[in-house]
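Table S2 (text version). Query chain:
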Amino acid sequence: MVKKVIGIDFGEARIGIAIGDEELKVAVPLTTIDAKKNEPIEALRKIIEEHDVNKAVVGLPLGLSGKEGRLAVLARNFAKRIREEIGIEVEMVDERFTSVMAERSVRSLGMKPSRQKKKVDMIAATLILQSYFDARR
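Corresponding structure-token output:
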């Protein structure tokens, strides 16, 4: 059985989601959860059930020095909720620079990142998940 994995770029306003599988080790953008309009865990539960996901990889937003700030604590708490409330395996990966790289990707397509926040979040989630896969090759 192929293990499906989702990548999560946690944010207070939006949560970017990517998907891939352990066999192919390729991440692709999936969707964005509007965390202000939806209960994020319930929206995530629906995605996990719909796509038969076995594991989540949550980005850990560390500072340049490697220290954890307020958003890192929130991301850890979100990962804990996924484990406890949804019941799947969760790993955390350093996500430093993924948002910057995602914004560059959107700019390279001729779009303004400030107007494409959902795309930026999905791309960041894709980069998080791809880095997880690449570390396991």
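Notes on Table S2: The domain at 4-134 is CATH 3.30.420.140 (Nucleotidyltransferase; domain 5). The helical segments are 40-51, 70-86, 98-108, 117-134.
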